[in-house]
Structures are given as structure tokens and as C-alpha cells.
Amino acid sequence: MKESAGIGRGLWHQGSTNIRPGDVILSLRPHVFTLSTTYLESHCSGCAGTPASGLKRCSGCRKVWYCTPTCQNGDWPIHKSECAAVQNWSTEAPSEKVSVPSDAVRCLGRILWQVKRKGTGSIWAKEIQAMQSNRKLIHPSAVEGHTHLAQSIVRYLGASSPTELEDYGIMSTADLVDVISRFIINTIALTTPSLTPIGVAVSPLVALINHSCAPNVVVVFPRSKKDSGNEPLVKVVALRNIAPGEEILMSYVDTTLPKSLRQNALTETYNFQCCCKACIESSEVDPREATWCPKACGGMCPLPTEKNRISRCTSCRAVISDPDAVMDAARVGQEALDKAASLKDNNKAKILTTNIIPVLMSAGLTPSTHPLLAIFKLHQTLLISSFPTPLTQDVLNETIRTAGKYSAGLSAVLDEGHPVRAMVLVELGKLLAVDEPSPPGSQTMNGSFPPSGPARLKVAYETLLRARKELLIGFGRQTEGGAVGDDVRETLVALEKELGVWSTGIRNVLEDTPRARITRVE
Fold first, then answer.
1. Dihedrals φ, ψ of 451, to 5°?
2. Strand locations in 243-289, DSSP E?
3. Is residue 115 exposed (0-12), middle (13-18) or buried (19+ Cβ within 10 Å)?
4. CB of 301 closer than 8 Å to CB of 291
5. How many CB atoms lie within 10 A of CB 37?
6. Residues 219, 236: contact at Cβ < 8 Å?
7. What is the rounded CA–CA span in Å between residue 352 and residue 370?
């Protein structure tokens, strides 16, 4: 760790050799974590896992679940206070929907109970207190949220006067705001191995890593079999070569977003403007804000804006003839994305995304361009969540095509091995491996995507091979890609048997009678 002018504290590589892509730089258990209310009944509150043997509920609060007595006993020193607080909160709650406080309130409660338990002078407490606070720089839009969280945590702790907070190291209102500010700007998402957010976690060491929209590391929870006794373990994994003397940098925001949206998100939550190379260095076209060449030469043009309406292809220099149409399409696409994401009716949301995708594609937006990339992601999620029973060939093929476009878009924006990119490849490969409900008579389908029969299984196999290669980077070689890597390896073995793959390579088994599953020929 060292401090630099204008940036503050950060982590730097002080070794003598390069850190390689896939190297695990840090591996540690967070100081504290809590599950989101939605996942309290499905995940263990002691290890954040989902054991096949099931969970047992705390007999006191009846809100928290554990996978083993070991997890429950290990969590008891903190849950003892939490248990009573949750019961009191539930008793006073006006409805069942709010009978459990939010994960932020519960996580702050765990932090403060641990401070009280270990003492304000303990190393643990000092590490928490050393995390950065933006109390004096809170963005106006965040004031209301800070105030509500402060009132909630005081109520949750059962404090009726300021003096009752002194045991937690809170001597004034400013101290309380500091606690909340440290939590908000230093919290990381607790995720499943497949990157689904299931809660929040706090690690002072990870919090030292500064932001870049072009990060060289990612923060993940792979859940490796090698670490099964100490989960959840947060791992900081290198995405690319990091030279000695180079700063370790992660991203605080979604880097698939265009610069303006990234800067807005950083300002509102962290109150700073990013000056990384992705935000400062000028390039002719950012893949997040691009259209295809109007002459179809294969090049791209920057997305036209009100400030810069003239947009030329970077290859042939052709000019977009109707920039207003492109800007209107992007604006309507953003409105459609916002509306579809807010709709509770998945069918209505799916109709909206189905209709807007061809509008954006006909306007020339590339798959990596916002909002088209985000709409591909949402559309894929909506399609999978509403799979009909029985599944139809048309729906399956549409889902595969959408996943393919989303994967192609991500490949233009994210580094090879980025865990998000790797997971999308996993999803695409598994979709391709799904049994075809009614495969067409022609197995090749004249070269269209997705293919059918053995050709589809071959593409599934090749896609999952690519996915495994990227998983070893994004989730760490030492973890062998974590739990997802293990699952992909098993799927590949099953596909090898189905395709008749031998040590010399892939050998497709062609049969006269088409059928959904291809058996191995001995």
C-alpha cells in the first residue's frame, strides 16, 4: 500500500516479476457480510453457501438459516445480538414485507456489534475506521439515503439516546455519518460463483483498491473446493499482466456503460470524476458508443451526439447521412430499456425488448453499443425466465441468437477472461447443449445460427472450451475457475461422450436418422 498525490491510498504491485492474467492477488474472508433478504432462506448466513443437504433455521429470530452447526456456532457471537435485534424489528414492523431490515442495515449492525465486542481499540475496529469516508463530500442526491440509513441503524441497535452509541465508537452525529459513508463507498457485492448478487460484504483491504474504467483486476467469490472450509472467500484476480510498480485497479461501476453514465454513477456514489485512460485517452470510436459504417465497409462510426453531429467511419471515412435518426433511436432505446427493466410483468417487458431490438439494429448500432448491449442482456434474461413448457424450437433458437449477440457485444468491451464475459459464454454454451425440441430436417440449416444436430453440439463444446479458458483467468487459475469451472468441466465431459470426442480431436457422429441426442459410437 502507498499514497499518491491526487489519488490517495491504493495498492501497488511491489514484486519483481509480472503478475499474470488469472493470478490470485488476494484471497481472504471479508470482515463482515450479510445476505439480501431474498436469499436468507436459500443461503447459509455463516458461509453464504447452498448445500445440497439443506439449511436449518435459527430457532430464535426464525429469519436466518445455516447449513451446519459449525456455521451456526461460528456466527453466534455476532448473531446473538443480531437475533434479538431482528426479533424486535419484526415485532414493530407494520407488515411482513418489512419484517426484516435491509442488508445494509443488518451489515452495519454486524460491523458495530463486532466493534463493541472486540473493542474500539482493536485491530479489527481500527481497520474498519481506517476506511475512507466521504462525509464532507456527500452528493446532494445521496443525503436522503444517508439520513434514512442513519435512522434505521439507530432503531435497529435499539438505541434511545446518543450515549448508548458510545460503546460502538460513535461519539457524535458526525461519527454516525462517517460509519454510514464508509459502508456505502467501501462495500462490495457478495455474489454467487456465477456472479448473481446475493448480499453485501466489507473488506478493508479490498477497499484500498482504487477505481479504473479499464481495470487490471476483478473481485469475485469463486467458491473453490480448495477453500471449502473458510467461505465466503473474496478473491482479487488479475485480468492482464501487471508490471512491478503498477497500481492494482478495479472497477466500481459497470464498465460496459458509456463514459457519461459511468461518470454519473461515480459522482453520485463516490463523489469523484474518473481520469483513467478509458475516460481521458481519446480514440476515434468507443465500442460502447458506435454505429456500423453506413457504406457497410466493416468499419465503425462514433455515435452522433448533439455536440458532434458529424460522424465518420474510421475506415472509409463515410459520413452518417441522418444523425438525427440514429440519436432518436438511441434515445428511444434508453427509454425502452428503463421501462422494460421496471416492469413487473415479464411478458410485457419481453414484448418491449422484442420490438426495440430491430429498431436499434436497423439504426446501425453495434452489439456493444449502449443501450443495445443492455437490452440484449435483459431480453435473454426475460426469454429464459419465460421458457414455455414444453420448450419450443423457435424460443430456444431465439434465446441462443440473443445470447450470441450479447456475447459478441461484450467481447468488444471487456478484456478476455473478464468474469462477466466468461459467464455469458458459459450460458451460451449451455443453451446450445440443450436438447432440441424439434430439430429441422436439415442439420446444417444452410449455415445459419444456431446450427442443428451434431453441428450444434460441436459449437456448444467449442463455446464451453472458450468459456473454461476465460474462467481460469476471471476466477483464478489456482481455483480452476471455481464452482462454475467445475460445472463446465463436467458438462464438457458429457458433451465429449455425446460427440464421440477422442484424444486426437472432435469427431462428429453423423447418423441417417436425425434425433435430439447423439449417442457415442464405439
1. -75, -175
2. 249-250
3. buried
4. yes
5. 17
6. yes
7. 16
Query: In the prediction, which pLDDT does 53 show?
Result: 87
Q: Locate 228 and state its grid cell.
A: 471449502
Helix (H) or strand (E) holding 257: none
pLDDT at 280 (0 to 100):
87
Which helix (H) or strand (E) element contains residue 282? none
| Intervals of the chain under pLDDT 70 | 1-7, 282, 441-447, 501-522
CA distance 36 to 168: 24
Cis peptide before 454 (omega within 30 of 0): no
Beta bridge partners of 10: 2
The pLDDT tens digits of the residues spanning 331-348 come to 999 999 999 999 999 999
Q: Hey, what's the cell of 339?
A: 421501462
- The answer to whether the beta carbons of residues 370 and 258 sit under 8 Å apart is yes
Q: What pLDDT was estimated at residue 448?
A: 85
Count the Cβ atoms, other than its own, within 10 Å of residue 304: 21
What is the three-class DSSP state of 242?
A: strand
pLDDT in tens, 136-168: 888 777 788 889 999 999 999 999 887 899 999
Find where cell 418489512 sits.
98
Residues in the chain: 522
- 3-class DSSP string for 483-514: HHHHHHHHHHHHHHHHHCCECCECCCCCCCCC
For 280-297, letters b (16+ CB in 10 Å) and e give: eeeeebbbbbbbbbbeee
Give the closest residue to 11 by CA, choosing from 268, 212, 249: 249
pLDDT for the residue numbered 515: 43
Position of cell 440443450? 434
